[in-house]
Amino acid sequence: MSRWLVTGSGGMLGQDLLAALATAGEDAAGLDRAALDITDLEAVRAALAAHTPAVVVNCAAWTAVDDAESREPEALAVNGTGPGVLAGACRESGAVLLQLSTDYVFPGDGVVPYAEEAATGPLSAYGRTKLAGERAVLDTLPERGYVVRTAWLYGAGGPNFVRTMIKLESVKDTLDVVDDQRGQPTWTADLAAQLVRLGRGALAGTAAPGVYHGTSGGETTWHGFTQEIFRLLGADPARVRPTTSAAFVRPAPRPAYSVLGHERWKGAGIEPIRDWRTALAEALPELLKAERQKGVTGQ
């Protein structure tokens, strides 16, 4: 059993990661945004001294993609500077660092899954700030730094696309959903379990440092994703109508193609995350429960 520290533990992934670590029998502590400012070196050093982790997983991030376009310096502080501060503290303490990143580091113009070593080229401020965090971790902690890129996350522990679609299915006759963006819906519980495996592999010396892609197998569009949600809810998928990104103009450009390859897991002796459809079928009852509880409490 090793000691783990999860930063940003109050978020959707952080919650599921602490649950996965408990299930795996690991000794884990979590620090949410209020408890630890990851841009504050002295605070980070103090946290590592107090918890003495063998593995630190950084789930803290600026995730407001559109807001980052007008507030890039603030997003960069959390997504770029913060991971570098954590990496420096882990270098001093000897801890392994797992840094979460995103598909937005790629330009989204691919036609085959992006390999872990594929050239990056973010189109948005959010993508640029997350790429800065990747580079800070890998440059500062080359022997114990890990970057796990993920995408299209959903889970029971916070607002997300699946929970929104569950709610809209009950109040809308039809929905228009974008069909020209491709990606991999990924359940936070699956990603959390994968992070536990990777951290253990890092400590055992079986998982080399560097970049890994933590997304589900398979691929779909937001339209196809929503149709599958409706099908699992017992609703008619034909109520979901395809449209284009032009119908939903946003401040930050979205990658048209966000499918990530998973080759590096083989070298670590770890199976990639399962197909997105299988995961969604298992996850949906938990998300339905979360939505019902939200309706009861009004939160």
Low-confidence stretches: none
Fill in the CATH topology: Rossmann fold
CATH superfamily: NAD(P)-binding Rossmann-like Domain
Strand order of the largest sheet: 2-1-3-4-5-10
Number of domains: 1
Helix content: 40-55%
Estimated share of beta-strand residues: 15-25%
Rg (C-alpha, Å):
19 Å
Protein name: dTDP-4-dehydrorhamnose reductase
Keywords: NADP, Oxidoreductase
Pathway: Carbohydrate biosynthesis; dTDP-L-rhamnose biosynthesis
InterPro entries: dTDP_dehydrorham_reduct, NAD(P)-bd_dom_sf, RmlD-like-bd
What secondary-structure arrangement, pairings included, does this model have?
Layout: E1 3-7, H1 12-23, E2 27-31, H2 41-51, E3 55-58, H3 65-70, H4 72-93, E4 96-102, H5 125-140, E5 145-150, E6 153-154, H6 161-169, E7 175-178, E8 182-183, E9 186-187, H7 188-204, E10 210-213, E11 220-221, H8 222-233, E12 240-243, H9 264-267, H10 276-297
Parallel strand pairs: 1-2, 1-3, 3-4, 4-5, 5-10, 6-9, 7-12
Antiparallel strand pairs: 8-11
Helix pairs in contact: 1-7, 2-4, 4-5, 6-8, 6-10, 8-10
